[in-house]
Structure formats: structure tokens, C-alpha cells
Write a structure and sequence with these properties.
homodimer, 360 residues, 3-stranded antiparallel sheet, 11 helices, globular, binds protoporphyrin IX containing FE
Chain lengths: 360, 360
């Protein structure tokens, strides 16, 4: 726990950067008013502009994120006044629609009430849109990574159809109240059917993925304040869907299926059947998103943009923190500049943090 | 600098492991004789068996090496008695022939005189077999990574033909004497012509690579002793040649050439032309080595073998040290188990170390 003086210091550090960056006109008496608020209420309330800057800095400091060139374009939606599950759910749907923007995806973060301002708000889901996973006699339908959470939702009363790409409900909990669950309106969820420019069997596989990854389970911390519900989203990098979600053995595990359809023998590791199937799934995902008019980046472009971010940060006199093993994309690594670089990786605030799950 | 007592302690640590591993029958008076030798001669002389064990442990401790499952099969050639450049060169040729073994490659290390036993022996080359690089008006023929060293060799009197895959001479220096250079006998260097199972244009590219990578510039340290010339070699993993040596932009840079021959436009990053060219070069290298009867491993097999090594080490009560960013192969990373693991990475002796170049 922070002492009050420590809160003042955290606020001071933050406000200084804020002004150094010249993003906000100087307010010399701002710190004094924060100090007063902390001493009277035990916490303080960033202005909307400060909150926005905090979100942008948190993104800029996310050492595992390759997409940081665009941190200044983050839209921050201020929903700190909401106290009710229904309103919070409405705000989440609003986030999704605004971020989706009919395919011209915009980076968005929605900030709910700070931890010390009332009962803690938590969204149980990993992401706003995710597909459920169902186990039956050792066979899994849907996303294996969501089996446990799916069971939890069923326990809460959710009645699934048990299909391969079934949207999970959103579960919101405030303090120790009973969690409430909600179904996303179908029309608010943009999805892309996966086809391939040449390999027509992809249609038969009936694969699809959703357009916008909205992380809902990380905490956003800035200047001593902790926002336990502050979902954020950008657009996808193709490999996230194609090399991980659809390909990982403990996810949709499509490599053997695609290889077989390609006529490759899965006996010969030497002939790189996995690599060949992986490549075609990746081409398919990029192709399908593009065709559907949904923004997505490929790993080569993202890698270049990240190097540009590094240059810009250096010019601004800041050292880039980065986690090499996350920044380097999970395929064709050595063909990208990021593979050949190294970075320090110290955590600095504002930032995003994992938090213990409420439902485990 | 170590004190004599420190040398005794280092020897003691080593001898203990040596015996624990039950690789060698216990010799209770061995330590006493080492102590005597250190106090009289200032250094000690491992037996042939101890040297072999030291080499195997150094390989086992090499946290960047994915090939460690086979560390117990390392052949260690004892050439500690050689004092003359010509003899040392002969021993290097012998290493190459024995390791090559007509394609059925054997892991081999050759150990030359210890640092404190006389003037320091150094092999200037990075590897025993490497192709020269020539710069002419900004255009490079051969391996760009070897341009600087190639110029050094020319300065010593070497007369190259300036072709794309020209064997560099071997440069040996003892103490501060003039370095001596030697041409490898052509017949001692096994090379593989790169062709592709389906893409016949590969023949026109006239690519080849050598069969055995023999690292010649790292120091081998064991139990307080330092061997500044102790070349070691295994067999190749395909990506080392295909994803790095032939593909890196600052090496043979073949991706644009192969992509063009494949009819891919290098404009569209989105269609993954780099990934597609990379994949075909990798298939070509594995296919060509196999066809030529030269041992090589693919990255999937190597990754599995490394996981088996981890299991075995655990069973033996030892913790595996590993450098994730080197262990994880430079392509299709997330399709392999190693991608999903984490390791500690502390250095422990015996091991291999970089040393300052003598010729820079
Ligand atoms: C605009 C497009 C964006 C792209 C292309 C992008 C790309 C990525 C990628 C590829 C990862 C690794 C994901 C994985 O391997 O699981 C990542 C992680 C991350 N990104 Fe971004 N990102 C974007 C926007 C954002 C935004 C808007 C934020 C926050 C405001 C953000 C914060 C993070 C964080 C905190 C992580 C680490 C997540 C974790 O530790 O699990 N990113 N990003
Ligand atoms: C038997 C087959 C072997 C395979 C397949 C293998 C594989 C590899 C690979 C892929 C690397 C990374 C190379 C790079 O990215 O530049 C590596 C590094 C390394 N290996 Fe092995 N290796 C083998 C044998 C050996 C042997 C016999 C030794 C020593 C006795 C050894 C010691 C090392 C060391 C010290 C490194 C790190 C080199 C550096 O830091 O530059 N390896 N190995």
C-alpha cells in the first residue's frame, strides 16, 4: 500500500513527464490540487486529458507490443462514472463498435472506475470477443484455451449451442457481488471468413476470426492509480490469428488439417510440412481481412513500424524498453530487422499488468 | 588472475562433478597430484579422459546450443603437444576429415595447448571452412560477413580468384609471431550443391554450402584452464544455412533473387513474399544435403531433441541453462515446443567463450 506522500510523489513524476512532453499546457497549480485531493479523499482524479496521456504512455511503455508507433493515436474513453453492470456492458459494446469502425479499426481504450473509488470492477473475460471451447469425451470443439472459462459461464446459466466459433458471453463483476453475464449483440461483432487466394479448400474448413482484439483482463496503472477494468484494443497482426490462435497445438491446431488438404505428408519433418501449412494459413488470414476491408498488419510491416518507433523514441530522448521474445514475430523471424536488435526491458509506469483472475 | 589455491578449487569442483557423473572410475589421489602440479608448474594437465569430459560438459553448458542432446558423443582429440603452425594446420585438416566422415558427420573437438603452457595459440578464422567476401565499388561477391577478414588474408599474401564461394585460407598465430596462412586441401572440404525438389531454377543460382561448421574462434575453458584454440563441430541445422547464411540481408541475401525466380512481387509485404522464398530455400537446403548423403537436421527435429535433452538433464538432477533467443529457431518459431518454454540462463564452466580477435 502507498502512503499519501507516495501518492503525491507518483502523481508528481507523472505530471512532470506530462509537461515535459509538451502535450498539455502547463498548469503550475495542478500538483497542488492533486495533493489536496489525495489528503482529503485518499486518491486523486486525473482530468480527461491526463487520463488520455496516461493511456498513451501505458501503451508506449508496453514492452511486449510491436504496435507502439501509433501510441499517440489512442482514443481514451472516460467511463469512470459508471457504477452498474448494465451500463458497463453498454460501454463495452460501444467500445467494440467504435474500435471496429466498420473495418477501419481505431485504437481505443475505455477506462472504468479506479480501484479506490468504490468496489473493484472486473471483467472476467480475457478479451471482449472470444470463441468458447467445449470438451466432450476428450474431444474439444471451439477454442481449447477457453474451455475452463466456458464451463464457468455455463455454471452462471449461459446456454451455448456448442459450435466451433461461438461467442462467449461477457461476465462483469463489481466487488463481491454476483457476477452478471451478457450476450454481445451479434451485429456489434465484425468477423472475417478465412479464404485463400489460391487454395480453395480453405472454404470447406469454415474458419473465421473476429476483427478486433480487445484485451479485457489487464489492469491499467498510472501515477499510483489502478484501473482494474480498462479494456484496450488495436488491430491485429496476422500472425496472432494465423500462427497462434488457429495454428498452436493447444488452440485450433489447424496445421495438420491444412497440410493434409495441401497433400503434404505429415511424416516428413524434413520436408517442412508444418512450415508450409503455417505459411498458407498466414497468407489466407491476411488475404481474407484485406478482402473484407478489415484493417490488419503483416509482421514485416509491423516490424518496420516498430523500428521507426525506436528511432522516434530515441529522437525524443527516451530509451525504448522491449521484450525481444514477444516483439519478434513467431514466424520468419530472422527476415525482420527486430530479430537482429536487442533492448533493455525494465518495467515503467504507466503500464498494463496481469491481475489474478477473480473466477479461479 | 587466479591464485594457486583458486586453481586447486576450480580443479576440485571439476573433479567432483566428473566423479559424480560416474563417467570415470574414482581416483582418490588425483586431486592431490593436481595440487602438486599446480604448486610446482603453475598449471595442471588434465588426463585425456578428463579433457574429454571437460569438452562434453562445455557443450552441455552451451546455453545457446539446441544440439546438446548429443553431448556425450563428442570426440575430443588431444593435440596439446603441438607447438608448430604446420603441425597445427595438419591437425585442423585431420579434424575436418574426421568430423566430415564422408557425410556421416561426427561431433568433434580438437584441443591445442593451454594458455599458460607456452605462447598462446590462436586461429584467426571464425570457422575452418568459410567463403571469402570481396567488395568492389560497393558490390560484394561472396560472403559479406568475411570481407574484412578476406582483406586481412590478402594483406598476408593470399591470392584469391574472387569468386562467390571461394575457400578462405586458415590463419594460425602463435604468441606474437607472424601469423602463417595455409590453403585447405580441396578434397578435405565436403560441399553440397543446393537444388530444390520442385523448383528447378535453383540450379541456375549455383548455390552451395559446406558440410561441416567448425567453430575456430571461441575459447574452451575448464576448471581454471583456458584453451584459446579448441575448434569444435557438429552437423548443421538447416536454418543456419538457409535462413541465415544464404538469406540474411547482410549475408548472401538470396530472398529477393529466389522470390523473383518464383514469380513473386517483392512489392507486397502483405502476400509474404519473403516468407515464401525463405521456406523454399530451407526446403532446398534440407533436400540437397539429404540427397548428397550429408547429415543435417531440420529445426523441428532439433527442437524435439532439445526437449528430450531437457528431460534427461532433469532426470540427472541438473538444471538446463538456455538462451531462449538463440535456442528458438529463426523460422516458424511458434510451431515448435521450445518456443513455448522458458529457461534460466546463467553461465557455468566448463564452457565456450568469445575472445577478442587478434587481427583487429
Ligand atoms: C494498433 C495495433 C496494435 C498492434 C498491431 C499490436 C500488436 C501486438 C502484438 C503482436 C502483441 C503480442 C501479442 C501476443 O503475442 O499475444 C502485442 C502485445 C501487447 N500490446 Fe499491442 N498492438 C496494437 C495495439 C495496442 C494497444 C492499443 C495497446 C494498449 C493501449 C497495446 C498494448 C499491448 C500490451 C499490453 C501487450 C502485451 C500483452 C500481454 O502481455 O499479454 N497494443 N501487441
Ligand atoms: C551435433 C550437432 C549440433 C547442432 C545441430 C547444433 C546446433 C546449434 C545451433 C543451431 C546453434 C545456433 C547457431 C547460430 O544461430 O549461429 C548452436 C550454437 C552453439 N553450439 Fe551447437 N550444435 C551442434 C553441435 C555442437 C557442438 C559439438 C558444440 C561444442 C562442442 C556446440 C556448441 C555450441 C556453442 C558454443 C554455440 C553458441 C555459439 C555462439 O555463441 O556463437 N554445438 N548450435
Amino acid at each position: 500500500m502507498y502512503s499519501k506522500e507516495e501518492y503525491v510523489q507518483e502523481a508528481e513524476k507523472f505530471i512532470k513527464v506530462h509537461h515535459q512532453d509538451k502535450w498539455y499546457e502547463k498548469k503550475l497549480n495542478r500538483l497542488e490540487s492533486i495533493r489536496e485531493q489525495i489528503y482529503s479523499e485518499g486518491t486523486w482524479t486525473p482530468t480527461k486529458d491526463e487520463l488520455k496521456k496516461g493511456g498513451q504512455m501505458a501503451w508506449r511503455n508496453s514492452s511486449r507490443c510491436i504496435g507502439r508507433l501509433f501510441h499517440m493515436s489512442l482514443n481514451v474513453k472516460d467511463k469512470r462514472n459508471l457504477t452498474d453492470e448494465n451500463e458497463i456492458f453498454e460501454a463495452l459494446v460501444e467500445h467494440l463498435q467504435e474500435a471496429t469502425n466498420e473495418g477501419r479499426i481505431k485504437p481505443v481504450m475505455t477506462v472504468f472506475r479506479e480501484r479506490r473509488k468504490g468496489e473493484e470492477i472486473r471483467i472476467w473475460n480475457k478479451q471482449l470477443v472470444r470463441y468458447a471451447g467445449f470438451e466432450n469425451d476428450g474431444v474439444i470443439t471451439g477454442d481449447p484455451a477457453e474451455v475452463e472459462f466456458t464451463n464457468k459461464c455455463i455454471g452462471l446459466g449461459w446456454k451455448p449451442k456448442r459450435t466451433a466459433f461461438e461467442l462467449l458471453p461477457i461476465v462483469i463483476q463489481i466487488g463481491n457481488r454476483e457476477p452478471k453475464w451478457f450476450e454481445l449483440p451479434r451485429k456489434s461483432v465484425l468477423e472475417v471468413k478465412i479464404t485463400h487466394p489460391e487454395l480453395h479448400f480453405f472454404e470447406e474448413l469454415q474458419l473465421k476470426w473476429y476483427a478486433v482484439p480487445v484485451i479485457t483482463d489487464m489492469a491499467f496503472r498510472m501515477a499510483g492509480l489502478e484501473y482494474t477494468a480498462a479494456p484496450f484494443s488495436g488491430w491485429y497482426m496476422g500472425t496472432e490469428i494465423a500462427a497462434r490462435n488457429l495454428a498452436d497445438e493447444n488452440r485450433y491446431n489447424m496445421l495438420p488439417v491444412v497440410a493434409k488438404k495441401m497433400g503434404l505428408s505429415t511424416n516428413s519433418r524434413h520436408d517442412l510440412w508444418k512450415d508450409r501449412a503455417l505459411l498458407e494459413i498466414n497468407r489466407a488470414v491476411l488475404y481474407s481481412f484485406k478482402k473484407a476491408g478489415v484493417m490488419i498488419t503483416d509482421h514485416h510491416t509491423a516490424s518496420r513500424q516498430f523500428m521507426k518507433f525506436c528511432t522516434r523514441e530515441k529522437e525524443a530522448g527516451r530509451e525504448v524498453m522491449a521484450d525481444w521474445s514477444w516483439i519478434v514475430p513467431p514466424m520468419s523471424a530472422s527476415t525482420m530487422e527486430v530479430f537482429h536488435k536487442q533492448w533493455q526491458d525494465n518495467v515503467s509506469d504507466p503500464n498494463f499488468y496481469y491481475q489474478e483472475k477473480k473466477w479461479k
